[in-house]
Design a protein that fits this description.
It is built from 2 helices and 8 strands, in the order βαββββαβββ. By secondary structure, the protein is mainly β. A hairpin with a 2-residue loop joins β6 and β7. It is globular, with a radius of gyration of 15 Å. The two termini are about 20 Å apart. The relative contact order is 0.22.
Length: about 120
Amino acid sequence: MRLNLLVIRTSNPEILKDQYERLGFEFDYHQHGNGPLHYASELNGFVFEIYPLTKSMEKADNSIRLGFDIEGLKSKIIDLSSSDWKILSEPKETEWGLTALIQDLDGRKIELKNK
């Protein structure tokens, strides 16, 4: 089994799209049928989408924790430190390799692992 789709919701899709683009995602504006306009990024069979909140949602769910393998983790953290990403832990060696923890504008924690 392999994860092929992840959808997150936010009250600020444009701002969150810009934030995740700093991690290396490339988004296109999409709409499926009569559904809401949203951003989608596809890479190696994995689709990552950013949708606006539904009418019944008051705020984004920040309980989900994401993880991404990236190249050049140390330099990426330096780049992110001058952006709106919150750096929760600097890169450190763990049993899983070099990792760091960041937080997006909605409060989701993202674990970055050096590829």
